[in-house]
Amino acid sequence: MASVLLALLMGFAVQRGGTCLVAALEEVVQKHRWTRLRALLETSLWVLGGFVLLRAFDRLPQVPMGFPLHWHAALGGALLGVGAFINGGCAFGVVARIGSGQWAWLATPFGFLTGFALAGSNLGMTSAMPVAIPDWLQQVPIGLAPMIIAALVARLGWLAWNRYNGTSDASIWSPHHATIVLGVTFLLLFVCVGAWAYTDVLAELATGRFMELGVRGLLLPALFAGALLGGWTAGIWQLRWPSPRALVDCFCGGVLMGLGSSLVPGGNDSLILFGMPLLWPNAWLAFGCMCLVVLVSLWLAGLLKRA
Questions:
Q1: H helices of the chain, where?
Q2: CB–CB of 274/27 below 8 Å?
């Protein structure tokens, strides 16, 4: 029950904050602002701090070891970028859009499943990796724990002060509020049920490993239910029947993201929440390639629009 409630809160936060890597990079290109991108990167930083705290209090489960650096990660990241651009949103963005009642994005998870199935069952996700606690994490000084807690309290206090003195709509969370909630709920879910990202769950469904899901299988519908609750309580939920073009774009984008996730392996949600905080080189390479491809695609789209 606790895990389902945490997944609901995660989906709620993603929808309320409009969390999406494509939207973050679009903000960089069009407005020359880094707010959303910094918030996403800050999520990885807080998850890293959370891993250190869990290790300090001897509550850290064994974690997937990752994969050696390989060109597959670069290609997978590029496919993730192209797919996210065509789809109009990354893995997080899909949750946020569905939560707002934009039904065209329901085609994206089916595209994910198709992409994973096309890639084959020999490409496993985080749940299939060998597990241990990384040496570098075991060697982190325990004395850092009070500093991490103090930094988190100070950051939360600063965000609360800004929100209290701001004039923003209460139904919309700042990117930093949303991504901190996202990181904390991920850490708590990790303690409860182990490594979990919804694209990894889709990969296991597509490759016939659904019997391994257990409780984690309940978290996928809970995540999307939380996003729908966020959209409904914000007053922005409405029926938006998709056009055939939007359905095709979302499905094809999902297929490419599924293929890319199989090559990395991992979708951009598991990269930000798991691979990057654990300092996996292939996760950082894939994330960098994804960002580069999305930035170039947005720049070219802008040139074509002005032509």
A1: 2-17, 21-31, 35-56, 71-87, 91-99, 107-119, 135-138, 144-165, 175-193, 198-206, 216-233, 244-263, 268-270, 281-306
A2: no
β-bridge partners, 64: 131
Evaluate if pTM is beyond 0.85. yes
H or E element at residue 131:
strand 131-132
List Cβ neighbours of 117 (8 Å cut-off, separation of 6 or more). Answer: 206, 207, 258
d(C-alpha 236, C-alpha 101), whole Å: 8
Locate 305 and state its tokens: 């629009």
Region of 194 please: left (phi>0), alpha (psi -120 to 50) or beta. left
Tokens of 128: 């299939």
Q: What is the pLDDT of residues 205-258, one digit of tens each?
A: 877 666 556 677 788 889 999 999 988 887 777 766 788 999 999 999 999 999
Distance of CA 76 to the CA centre of its chain: 16
CA distance linking residue 15 with residue 172, whole number of Å: 9
The domain locations on the chain are 2-128+170-306
